[in-house]
Automatic annotation (TrEMBL):
Superkingdom per UniProt: Eukaryota
One Gene Ontology MF term: iron ion binding
Cofactor(s) this protein cannot do without: heme
Positions annotated to bind heme: 460
Organism: Selaginella moellendorffii (Spikemoss)
Protein's name in the database: Uncharacterized protein
Pfam families per UniProt: p450 (PF00067)
């Protein structure tokens, strides 16, 4: 009996050992395939087409190099106050495009990314071959951690469904109802400035515009519940801070589950945020009548469909992340450019005074602010808040003269395209809003060379909202203040998720 039991025990141990060995072998095979065999085969297919690039390292590819090169720009200011910023901000593109040509390949962890700068090919990816090119799993998981599982992050059928529910909230007729509220937010900011100017001659613009756009999105997204909206946005800002600390380890698989203190803090912040937003949505569903804020419009659109409270909550997070900082940055760069170019400041002021007659713009007069519109476009060309975009390739696809293999990605350096002399002429680095006088499609040698909001069906859903908001803010400011750059301003644009000034933007303000 004893021998019999011993025999069974041995068989169980041997079986367990075999299972363990099989699991280790499987894991080993998938590690070798994912980190060595697949990248090696993709590399060979890309290089065989004459597309060269910097040598890559195991696992991280060129990711750490790219981060380091982008950090170099953060460590020193630009030498002059000019707009030739590609070599400062996108040093990786500047160096590698000189070494390997404008079309080269670099590696983001195990994903090869082919740089594509031809607007025609970019249009093909973003507007025509949308099923072959999508956001990659790596990108989606990074986006979900930053912006939530809303419109920016979802793909395929889930994206079509979200877009159908969200897009109507941004129709011009609906946005027009938000104009008076945005005007009030701008006037409140001006009151604050008048108060501050009694003590000092300068105002710091980046933080002012960050407050303004947070205030506007809190009101326009949540209407009467805007104080709770503000609380949610503070939590989102804390999440953004924590994420910037852990993003450096993105190439480590499963890094979100590792016991970093930042991961524990993030989990708590996400859970606080979810209960706050879900509470707010429940309250709103219980109210009768329709409200004209973004949340109300979205709830009306989804009705009783399967778009549940969680899906609505993810879209609320998306509005904040996609729309708050980007808009603040647009306003910051445009006022910097107007401070630097007093002739354009005077022309824009004259237009604002003529159209608005001392008041904030009305919904129907916003389209008459043509010069201000041109100034905003020129700002978005020189300083696009989203400076680089990309898409992954899900099946072998012919793109112009390239065969993009499944598993590779294409990357579009929007900033470099907006500064390309072949597209924009010799004055590509100069501020010249006049180039937009006949509209965006005629401003350069290619109708799609201007792409701050992307192109095709996934074009920025908030595009009209942001231009409306920026026009109201600028027209209101211009009618009340004349301004110039403070001598203490230091010019140092940097990439920190978006293209922003590293230092503050102090302006010397004079009440008109
Ligand atoms: C100057 C300001 C802005 C810029 C430069 C900008 C730029 C962009 C870009 C480039 C994309 C495409 C991203 C991609 O597909 O990888 C995008 C998408 C998006 N943006 Fe904006 N955006 C701005 C403001 C806003 C605002 C104010 C909102 C909303 C309140 C917003 C909401 C969105 C959403 C929801 C998407 C995803 C659209 C989709 O995939 O269907 N954006 N934006």
């Amino acid at each position: 009996m004893g021998h019999f039991m011993e025999g069974i025990g041995k068989a169980v141990w041997t079986g367990a050992l075999l299972v363990l060995l099989a699991l280790v072998a499987k894991l080993w095979r998938s590690i070798v395939t994912r980190f060595w065999l697949e990248p090696r085969s993709l590399d060979a297919r890309i290089r065989s087409q004459g597309i060269e690039g910097p040598p890559r390292t195991f696992m991280a590819g060129n990711m750490l190099q790219v981060m380091k090169m982008r950090d170099t720009g953060k460590e020193r200011d630009m030498e002059g106050l000019n707009h030739d910023i590609v070599k400062h901000v996108l040093l990786d593109y500047h160096q590698w495009s000189k070494e390997y040509g404008k079309r080269y390949c670099y590696w983001w962890a195990t994903e090869p990314r082919i740089m594509v700068t031809e607007p025609e090919l970019i249009r093909e990816v973003l507007a025509k071959k949308v099923t072959q090119f999508e956001k990659s799993d790596i990108m989606v998981s990074e986006l979900v951690s930053i912006v939530g599982r809303g419109l920016v992050a979802v793909t395929g059928d889930e994206w079509s469904y979200h877009r159908r529910v969200v897009a109507p909230a941004f129709y011009l007729e609906k946005l027009k109802k938000m104009v008076p509220r945005i005007g009030l937010c701008a006037l409140e900011m001006l009151d604050r400035w008048e108060e501050a100017l009694r003590e000092q001659p300068e105002i710091e613009m980046s933080s002012e515009f960050s407050k303004l756009t947070a205030d506007i999105i809190s009101h326009t997204a949540f209407g009467s519940s805007y104080l709770k909206g503000q609380k949610a946005f503070e939590t989102l800002r804390a999440i953004q801070e924590e994420l910037s600390k852990v993003n450096r380890y993105n190439y480590i698989p499963g890094k979100r589950f590792l016991p970093f203190p930042a991961n524990f803090r993030l989990r708590k912040l996400y859970s606080d945020l979810d209960s706050l937003l879900l509470g707010l949505i429940k309250e709103r569903r219980a109210q009768s009548g329709q409200s004209h804020d973004l949340l109300g419009l979205m709830l009306a659109e989804c009705g009783n469909s399967s778009f549940d409270d969680r899906a609505v909550m993810e879209e609320c997070k998306t509005f904040y992340f996609a729309g708050h900082e980007t808009t603040a940055i647009l306003l910051t760069w445009s006022i910097m450019l107007l401070a630097l170019h007093p002739e354009w400041q005077e022309r824009a002021r004259a237009e604002a005074q003529e159209v608005c007659e001392g008041a904030t713009p009305e919904a129907d007069s916003i389209s008459k602010l043509k010069l201000i519109n041109m100034i905003l476009h020129e700002t978005l060309r020189l300083y696009p808040p989203v400076g680089v975009m990309m898409r992954s390739c899900f099946e072998d696809t012919i793109l112009g003269d390239i065969l993009v293999p499944k598993g590779a990605a294409v990357s579009f350096p929007i900033l470099a395209i907006h500064h390309d002399k072949e597209l924009w002429g010799e004055d590509a680095h100069e501020f010249n809003p006049e180039r937009f006088k006949d509209g965006v499609t005629k401003a350069s040698k290619h109708p799609n060379a201007f792409m701050p909001f992307s192109l095709g069906p996934r074009v920025c859903v908030g595009q009209s909202f942001v231009l409306m908001e920026a026009k109201i803010a600028l027209a209101t400011i211009l009618q009340h203040f004349r301004f110039r750059l403070s001598p203490s301003y230091r010019h140092c644009p940097v990439f920190k998720l978006t293209l922003r000034p590293r230092h503050s933007l102090p302006l010397v303000m004079e009440k008109i």
